[in-house]
Design goal:
single chain; 492 residues; alpha/beta; 6-stranded parallel β-sheet; 16 helices
């Protein structure tokens, strides 16, 4: 049986409704990245909220709470809590009352998805729309926190790599070459779960079109109003793996038979990548590919030669140099060498930002355009960043993300709620106070003001926190194309 949605939380959330002042009719909380632990990164990409709302606040709540009999919903809720917290330690009337209401009485206002939000600025606001259910606001905090931080950080990862690509493509690559195809996500097998893999790959695909994570396509279609049959959502790639190459070697007694079969029989009209280091990588590059030159040039596609061991920066750049010696190519309008379109180099799932920079810089220094290579980002880079001699794993605390209540109303009287721990040496746990308005200052930078209430909130002024969900329904949706446009300023 699916877990009751109001038990998708920390235990202590189940008893807070009784702990709040009983006369409270309104509660408002804000989701905020309070700080950064990454050098040079002080903004977090807003992404994943729409998917979270659709999956949990609409689909999950409807299917596993509102649309099932109240007695069944209460029975499972009570079964778990009575045997874990203990009978009498919690109240279930609030659950029965919510079921009777028939919808989730919340409104969520948020910055547009794809926006790079500075730390300390609230990204979204949660409030109740029915005076009886102020407790629901923070009841979803745990679920929201654990669902949103990872896609947001992975959107940051994709954006970081895209800036590296932009830097070197500006220098060495023709403008007509699509930058969104320069790198791809290869992280699925190293993710914590299928759900994590889909969300993180979808986030990476805000900046690139290549992914090895097939279900990320369906995830984006379902949650971000796109269609891979009508628009470029993302693309996969035909590729071999070691089991394929080694099993054919066991039958053929050589590697060249399989290379020719791939080119002539299996994929005569399709581009594909071929893992090439099962035995002697440089023998394959310098000898076997030379012997297959006629077949490669006659092939109606591109053969991407893939190293899979050794120093990626060294392997992939030297491969380009060696392939140039054999296959030649042309010089583009920016004065950089481009390999014959039938061949290129690729290295997957081992590319860190530092390695990407080194690869592109080495190519440029030796007179080669950066589109001679395709690069892959694996699970390490989706979950960790190397800075100097330190490895910095990505967690919710990478940006100090928290959901905090800052405003309430009791008998129509505004209440300012805030925390400001004296023992907080880092000075990042201090919360906002009251209602918040997010806007752009005179220089176009996103900032906010707090300390407002329902009487002083300037309704006539700009507020970037706009309603996206209210009373069980979406009030504003973004397409994948819109999110990409916002993130990249229209230059995806």
């Amino acid at each position: 049986m699916p877990i009751p949605p109001l038990l998708l939380c920390d235990f202590y959330k189940t008893v807070h409704s009784e702990q709040y002042p009983q006369a409270i009719t309104k509660l408002v909380s804000y989701f905020t990245p309070r700080m950064t632990r990454l050098e040079g990164e002080d903004k977090l990409v807003m992404f994943g909220l729409q998917a979270f709302i659709k999956k949990y606040l609409i689909e999950y709540f409807n299917n596993h709470f509102f649309r099932i009999p109240k007695e069944k919903a209460l029975a499972e809720y009570n079964r778990i809590l009575s045997h874990t917290l203990g009978a009498g330690s919690y109240q279930d009337k609030k659950i029965a009352d919510l079921h009777d209401l028939g919808y989730l009485p919340l409104e969520i206002k948020a910055i547009a998805e794809g926006t790079r939000v500075p730390v300390k600025v609230p990204m979204l606001e949660i409030s109740n729309t029915h005076p009886q259910f102020a407790w629901v606001v923070n009841a979803i905090e745990t679920l929201m926190s654990c669902s949103l931080w990872h896609p947001m950080l992975c959107a940051n990862v994709g954006y970081k790599y895209r800036q590296i690509v932009n830097k070197y493509y500006d220098l060495s690559v023709e403008e007509s070459v699509p930058r969104a195809r320069a790198m791809g996500d290869f992280s699925m097998r190293g993710q914590e779960s299928l759900e994590s893999a889909m969300a993180s790959s979808a986030a990476f695909c805000l900046s690139f079109l290549n992914t090895a994570t097939v279900p990320a396509i369906a995830w984006l279609e379902h949650y971000y109003n796109c269609d891979c049959t009508k628009e470029p959502v993302a693309f996969g790639a035909i590729s071999t793996e070691h089991s394929v190459m080694c099993s054919n070697y066991a039958v053929d007694g050589d590697e060249i038979t399989m290379i020719k079969r791939l080119l002539q029989d299996i994929y005569p009209n399709h581009s594909f990548s071929m893992v090439s280091d099962s035995y002697d990588y440089w023998n394959l590059v310098d000898n076997l590919l030379v012997r297959c030159k006629d077949q490669i040039l006659a092939h109606q596609g591109t053969l991407s030669v893939r190293g899979d061991s050794g120093d990626p920066a060294d392997i992939v750049t030297k491969t380009v140099f060696h392939l140039w010696e054999t296959f030649g190519g042309s010089v583009n309008s920016k004065g950089y060498k481009v390999l014959n379109p039938h061949i290129k180099a690729i290295y997957g799932d081992s590319i860190t930002p530092q390695r990407a920079e080194k690869i592109y810089q080495t190519l440029v220094e030796n007179g080669f355009a950066c589109n001679n290579v395709s690069l892959g980002v694996g699970s390490f880079s989706m979950q960790c960043l190397e800075q100097g001699e330190e490895l910095k794993p990505f967690t919710r605390d990478t940006f100090g993300i928290a959901v905090k209540a800052t405003y309430a109303e009791m008998q129509d009287k505004p209440l300012m709620i805030f925390k400001n721990p004296k023992t907080d040496d880092g000075h990042f746990k201090k919360s906002q106070r009251g209602l918040c308005r997010v806007f752009k200052d005179a220089q176009g930078r996103i900032t906010y003001e707090d300390g407002l209430d329902k009487y002083t909130f300037p309704q006539e002024k700009e507020n970037l926190l706009q309603s996206v969900f209210k009373d069980g329904k979406m009030t504003k949706e973004f397409t994948l194309q819109e999110v990409r446009t916002i993130l990249h300023g229209g230059t995806f």
